[in-house]
Amino acid sequence: MKIFETFNLSGLNLSSRIVMAPLTRRRATDYNVPVPMMAEYYGQRAGAGLIIAEGTSPSQNGVGYCNMPALYNLEHAKAWKKTTTLFFYYFPKCILVFSLVVLSLS
């Protein structure tokens, strides 16, 4: 088994056997908007066959800490689109999956 060989993961064709786990990096704005640095960050790791992106809040109530990226309004979607468009332009064979996290503070 070679780590850089293509791999079929239950019907998901990966460019390598490298899978990057989700991270919580706290690099979004104070309003949970992803920043351009994220495209660069993921681009640097695009040799992985599968990237599970950092914890991303799907709702305002799910934001559990400051600067956590979110994906619950148009501003968030536009910011993530910039990141994913640039990422897939340079690395079309890598798979990027969002890790949606809902935190309860009760």
Polypeptide structure, described:
The structure is a single chain. 23% of the residues are buried. This protein has two helices and five strands. By secondary structure, the protein is an alpha/beta fold. The protein is elongated. It is 24% helix and 20% strand. The mean pLDDT is 82. The strands form two sheets. A three-stranded parallel sheet has the order 3-4-5, with no helix packed on it. Strands 1-2 form a two-stranded antiparallel sheet. A hairpin with a 2-residue loop joins strand 1 (7-9) and strand 2 (12-14). It has one domain (15-99).
CA radius of gyration is 15 Å
Please, how many domains? 1
Low-confidence stretches: none
Question: How many strands?
Answer: 5
How many separate helices?
2
- Proportion of residues in helical segments: 10-25%
Report the portion of residues in β strands: 15-25%
Helix and strand content put the structural class at alpha/beta
Tell me, rounded to a whole number, the average pLDDT: 82
Strand order of the main beta sheet, please? Answer: 3-4-5
Largest sheet: 3 strands, parallel
Order of helices and strands: EEEHEHE
The rough form would be described as: elongated
Spatial gap, N to C terminus: 46 Å
Secondary structure elements and pairings:
Layout: E1 7-9, E2 12-14, E3 19-20, H1 37-44, E4 50-56, H2 74-90, E5 95-100
Characteristic key phrases:
106 residues, 3-stranded parallel sheet
Describe this structure in a few short sentences:
The protein is an alpha/beta fold and 106 residues long.
